[in-house]
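pipeline/complex-builder :: batch 7 item 3
reading input block
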Amino acid sequence: METFPKPSRDVPPKKNRLQAKKKKPRRYWEEETTLTAAGASPGPPGNKKRNRELRHQRPKNTNNPKKSRFSRKPQLPKKPRERRNPGPQRSLSGAQDPFPGPAPVPVEVAQKFCRIDKSKKLPHSKSKTRTRLEVAEAEEQEISIKAARSELLLAEEPGFLEGEDGEDTAKIRQVDIVEAVDIASAAKHFDLNLRQFGPYRLNYSRTGRHLAFGGRRGHVATLDWVTKRLMCEINVMEAVRDIRFLHSEALFAVAQNRWLHIYDNQGIELHCIRRCDRVMRLEFLPFHFLLATASETGFLTYLDVSVGKIVAALNARAGRLDVMTKNPYNAVIHLGHSNGTVSLWSPAMKEPLAKILCHRGGVRAVAVDSTGTYMATSGLDHQLKIFDLRGTFQPLSARTLPQGAGHLVFSQRGLLAAGMGDVVNIWAGQGKASLPSLEQPYLTHRLSGHVHGLHFCPFEDVLGVGHTGGITSMLVPGAAEPNFDGLESNPYRSQKQRQEWEVKALLEKVPAELICLDPRALAEVDVISLEQEKKERIERLGYDPEAKAPFQPKPKQKGRSSTASLVKRKRKVMDEEHRDKVRQSLEQQPQKQEKKAKPTRARPSALDRFLR
Amino acid sequence: MKVKMLSRNPDNYVRETKLDLQRVPRNYDPTLHPFEVPREYVRALNATKLERVFAKPFLASLDGHRDGVNCLAKHPKSLATVLSGACDGEVRIWNLTKRKCIRTIQAHEGFVRGICTRFCGTSFFTVGDDKTVKQWKMDGPGYGEEEEPLHTILGKTVYTGIDHHWKEAVFATCGQQVDIWDEQRTSPICSMTWGFDSISSVKFNPIETFLLGSCASDRNIVLYDMRQATPLKKVILDMRTNTICWNPMEAFIFTAANEDYNLYTFDMRALDTPVMVHMDHVSAVLDVDYSPTGKEFVSASFDKSIRIFPVDKSRSREVYHTKRMQHVICVKWTSDSKYIMCGSDEMNIRLWKANASEKLGVLTSREKAAKDYNQKLKEKFQHHPHIKRIARHRHLPKSIYSQIQEQCIMKEARRRKEVNRLKHSKPGSVSIVSEKKKHIVAVVK
C-alpha cells in the first residue's frame, strides 16, 4: 500500500498513459519485458512482508521504496544478528549456529499483543498488589513476544493492487483485475441479473462462505457463493427491508413489511416475531446472540436469538430509524438520525451512551471499522466524515462528495467502501486498520443500477454490492484478513466442527448487560467502588485500620533513651513529615498557576468570551 | 498494474482423508478475537458454577469401631494404610483402597489416648488410659501366634499423647510432664515440666527434628528443645489449646487449635503476635493437621464439621459436614495431599477429597489443560461480585448457620461498644487492640 504513486507528484504525459492502458495486463509475478531504469524487479510474493519489516529498521530509505529495494541487495550478506553475538556458539559436531540466540521480534508486532496498559497506575496500591501486578506485566511481555513470534507461522499474505508508476489504481477496471488474477480468484467476480425483484440488500455469513440477499419485492435467497450452490430461494410475497444471517449460516432473519421473520437454510419459516414490527434495519451481535432491530416506529429492539426473548426495547425518540450499524469492537449500536446526530446505544441503558453531531443535514449512512477506532458517516450535506471513536469523538478527516454516499462499509483490513448512486468508491489507508485517506480512491466501479446494499465478505477480497439490477461481487484486493482463526470462524469447517463451535459459542454467550463503550473495563480494577468500600469500612469501624500509626521511637541502648532524646526524635520525624507535605504542595502549586496563566499570556481580546 | 488477490488452496485447510484430524489454523491477532475479556468472564463464571456442581467431597465412611474414634495416625511409607484408636481401647488398621479394616487389636483398657507410627513404618506406639505405652508390630501375628505388643512400658501417671521423632529411635509422651524416651529403655531420658498441669498433646517438628511443641490445659503452648533439659519458651493464650501442628514446609511455623473457636498460626520466633488468626468454627477446635504442601491445613471441631484453611487466610476455604457426622475428634491430611480423614464420635472414620470438585483418576492431557485454564480464569475473576458469591456459597446445617448469625451479632455488639468507648474517652487513653493481639495473654521465656 505504501507504494501507491501519487499522480500529483509526476504525472506522465498523456501519450504515455494511453500506452500504459493499452499494455496487456500482467500477473504480478511475471517479469516485465521492458525493464525501465526505475522499474522495480518484483520479488516473489512471500518476500513482501519481510521487505517491509526490513524497511522499518532503516527509516532513511522509507521515502523511496525503489531505491530501498536496490540498496537491500548488497546489504543482505552482513546480517546484524551475527554482529550482536560476538562469541560463536559451537555445537557438538563443531558446526556454528548462524543465528544464535532467540529470534528477534519486531517491536510493533509484539505491541499488538500487549493487553495491559502500563500507563494506568493503581492509586494507593499495597506493595503486595504492586508486585503481583509487576509479575503479571512481565508475564504478559513474555507472552506477547511469543505470540509475535508465532506470526511467522501464518500461511497467507494479504492481497494488494499497485499501479505502475503514475498509474491511478482507481482507473483500473474490474475486467482488468479479473483478467490479471488467477482463475480461482477470477471466479469470485460475478453479476447476478435480477432486475425483476428490485433493489437488493445482502449479507455474508460470519465465515464468509455464504451469501444471503433479499430483494425489495420479496425475493429471498441464500447460497454458498464460493461454489455457487443455491441453498434456498423463496418469495415472501411482502416487501423485504433487510436480511441478516444469525450466528451460523443455518438461520437468517428477514425484516419484512410488517414483522420480523426467521428462516432456516431451507427457506422454512421458523419464527415470526410480531413484537418487532416495521423493522428497517437489522444487525446481529454474534458474541451476545442479540439481533438488534431498528424500526420505523423509532424503537431499537434487542432480541436474544438463543432464548427468543426481547432483552431491551429502547425508544430512540428520533423518529424513523433507517440508519444503523454495529461497532464490532464493543457491540455498541450506532444509529443515524435525521437531525444529523449519531447516537450510541447499549441494551443496558435506556439513554444513549453518547450522541455525536456529525452533519448539518440528516445522516444517511454510518460504518464502524473492525478495531472500533474509526466511524465513517455520510449525510445529506454530501459530506463524508471519519470520526475517532477512542475518546473525544472528533472528526479526523472529511470530504465532500458530489453525490453524497448512501451506503458505507468498512472491510476487515480497514478499507472504506461507499455507494453513491450507481458508483462504488473504495478508499484505503496505509497498512492494516489505519485511517483511510479520502483524497484519492483506491478503486471505483460503476454498476448497472443504484446501490442499495454493501457488504465486504469476511476473509475474501470481495465486496458484495446489492443494487436495483441484482447483485455484483466485486474484487477488492487487500480488503480481507488473510489468516483466519480456525476456532473462531473457519470458512472451511465441516458440519461437525460447526456443531462443536455452536455449542461452545452458546456456552460463552456474553450477557447483554456487559455491552459498554470499553469492553476491557471488566478486567480493570474498579477504583471507585474500592474507595467507596474503604470509606464505608472506616465509618463502620470508627477508625482507619490501614492508617499509618504515629511514630513511636524505639528504646535505644542504655543511657541514650532519655525522655528528652525520645521527644527530640519524635519531633524530628514530625518535622520531616511536615516538610514533605509542604514540598508536595509547592510542587502542585506551579502546575495550577500555569494552568491559570495560559489564557492570560495572549493579549485579551473582546472575542475571548466566545472561546471555550 | 500489479495485483494479488487472496486465494487460498482448500487442500491446505481441509483434511485429506476421513481418518485425519481436522486442520485448525490459528491466528492470535487480537482483532480476530473480539470481546476477549467479557468472554473470559463468562467462561470463569461457568467454571465457577461447574465447580460448585461437581463439589462432592465425601468418598467413604469406614465403620467398624465400637466406640468413638479418639486418634488417627498415617503410615509413613504406605499411602493406603491408616491406623485409628478408639475410646474402648481398640486399635484398628485400615486399608483405604479396599476401604476395609485389615487388623483389630484390643490395645488398652479405657481410651486409646494417642497413637503414632515409627518413621520406618515397621511398628507403631499407643498410649492409653491404663498408664501404659505399648509398641506394636505393623504386620499381624503369624499363624498360631498371640497378638502381643513388642514392648510395654508401665508408667506412673496417665499418658495423654505420644509422638515419634522423625529420624531417630526416640519418642515423646505427655501427661503431667513431657517425657522423652529412648525406644530401648523403660524409663524416660528426660522429663520436662513448666508449672503443674496436664499436657494434652506433644508434637515433634518435622524439619528441625529436635524441637517439640506441647499444649497444656493451663492455656499455654510450650516449646522444648530436646538437646537441653529445660523448655525454651511458652505463650499463654486466653483459652486452652487442644492440639498443635507444625508446618511441614516452614520449620518455625505452627498452628494451634484453640477452645475459643479459633486457630492461631504462630511464628516460633515471635510468639507475642500470631501470624494469622483463623476464625470460622462455631465451637471448640479439637484437632488440626497440615497438608504436606504446607499451604493449607484442616481443622476438626466440636461443631460437627471440618474446615480447610489456607495458611495465610483468616477465613476457611471449605467446610465439610454430613448429617450423621457428630463431634469430630481427630483429623488427618493424607501424605499425597489429596484426601482428608476424620474420626468422629459416632464411631466412623470418613474419607474426604481435599479439593471438593476434583476429578479422581487419570486425566487426559486435554482434560488437564482445560482444568488448568479454568483454574486460571477463576483466579483472574475471583473478585467479581457475582463470581465471588457463587464460589463462596456453602450449604451449612441449621445449627451451625444459626450459631454463625448469633456470633455475628455478639461480635458486632462488642465492636460497637469498643467504638463508643473510644469515641467518648480522652484521646489516647483507650487504644484499639487488634484481633491478633487480643488473645495473647503473655509470652514467657
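note: Chain B touches chain A through 42 residues (CB under 8 Å).
queue -> next item
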